[in-house]
């Protein structure tokens, strides 16, 4: 099985969040399971220096005469071939910019010519999120089936159709409401949804949620049709078991039992001068999607019983609110994303807050449980699929009162030491490895390879 993953980021070469983590782990596990795996991603200006150029030349693609010179870089690691496409839109620092729809339209068009230049013909192309949507469309036009994974439906790669349609290189029939047109815009997310043989989300619950008006982001009608055709499923993300392993974590004093967990808590208290109250941690983008405004509003009650340690950045209003609280004791706020500190919070906190309004999968709750820290989560998406009531604590409404009530439940369990220790042990024993999800994707690839290509409106078979 020759599989090509296409994504905007891949750890450790480029990363801004969970998507990079997925592409940093899933391909290697699939390679270990016997697949021939290639990952294609942009060659950003500030990517690591170990990328070796293996091809340079002018690229030609139907309807795409303006791609110009393309450089292809390569890294091989853990049985995976990583290819990085060097195009003018990516010759600047940073991953994402205001003109990303144009940038990733060029990237999506360049993927297929790049594979052809290296004589690489995949059995399946697996695109991840809107930045890879166009690559799935071009693969389908070349007669290769695609799997398209929605990691977050909220971000769709939209631009006005007058300017955006030419960027894609696709013919005029591709811009109707049944294809890429979306309320007067071109949508690269729809390119992936419409042209893929199978659409997946990163958890079973999220696959059902996006069929509703609340979570469907205006695409629920299209998604309902895809689901009715048997082309929609949810496969829960795995967790990089090597990177997140309390037994061998270089960022903390490694531990494998409750005594080590207690020592990690003492170290975190000493680092920030915290008192003896239990610690509620959070490592997150500071955004309404993540419910961090809910956490901020719940602090007046939470600080009566908890120390609260938050690491993250994002919405300036939330950053300012957390800084204000940090001046009054029992709240620690560290702005930014610091890898080592994140590990120390996962290890040293007693509970972990994830009041997300929606959460396609979420990795933080898995990491927390692996480190013996019990999640307090809203009942949505992958949080439902991974946090059971006998380990963590769940709440429904998107309100500070509901979060505070769940934290009171956690506090009562914390006071009952046998109950708390049992929960911690159950959480640490859970297996969130990529082995199961990787095998599920390989089975899906075999299914789409054996089936007829998905019909697309306007495209003659």
What this model shows, in words?
Helix 9 (292-302) links the parallel strand 13 and strand 14 (307-314). It contains 16 helices and 18 strands. 39% of the residues lie in helices and 20% in strands. The two termini are 24 Å apart. The chain folds into two domains: 2-238 and 435-450, Rossmann fold (3-Layer(aba) Sandwich), CATH 3.40.50; 258-429, Rossmann fold. The radius of gyration is 23 Å and the shape is globular. Helix 1 packs across helix 16 (435-450). The strands form three sheets. It has a nine-stranded mixed sheet, sandwiched between helices. The protein has a six-stranded parallel sheet with strand order 15-14-13-16-17-18, sandwiched between helices. A three-stranded antiparallel sheet has the order 8-10-9. The chain has 461 residues and is an alpha/beta fold. The mean pLDDT is 95. The longest helix is centred in the N-terminal third of the chain and has 18 residues, at 100-117.
Short overview:
The chain is of the alpha/beta class.
Which class of secondary structure composition applies to the elements? alpha/beta
Beta fraction: 15-25%
Number of separate helices: 16
Unreliable sequence segments: none
By CATH, the topology of the largest domain is Rossmann fold
**What's the total number of strands?**
18
Rg over C-alpha atoms, rounded to the nearest angstrom: 23 Å
CATH level-1 class of the largest domain: Alpha Beta
Strands across the major sheet, in which order?
3-4-5-2-1-6-7-11-12
Shape: globular
Classify the helix fraction into a percent range. Answer: 25-40%
- Number of self-contained structural domains: 2
- According to CATH, the homologous superfamily of the largest domain is Glycogen Phosphorylase B
User: How would you state the average pLDDT, rounded?
Assistant: 95
